[in-house]
Amino acid sequence: MKGADGAVLVYLLCVLSLASEVSLADINSTQTAGDVEDGKTPVVHSAVSQIIAREGTCVLIDCNVTGEPFPRVQWFNSHGHLLDTEAS
């Protein structure tokens, strides 16, 4: 969604997982924080609000999470595409 000044509004979804592969059913399920088999349920300690940036620019998103084993964090844009968070 582009604004008149060329700014782009980006909605991001953060997905946390303990396993190396996650199904859509796993993403849509919820768990209460606490103990799970062989570890601790992932917990997000920061909230993400709307981020507005010009297309092609970099943004820094702070995502503080805990869990055992440490959760893998994946970011998806508003179109459902997985974002490359390893690019520098």
Automatic annotation (TrEMBL):
It holds the Pfam family I-set. Residues 42-88 form the Ig-like domain. The gene is mfa3L. It comes from the Eukaryota. Keywords: Signal. Residues 1-25 form the signal peptide. This is Microfibrillar-associated protein 3-like.
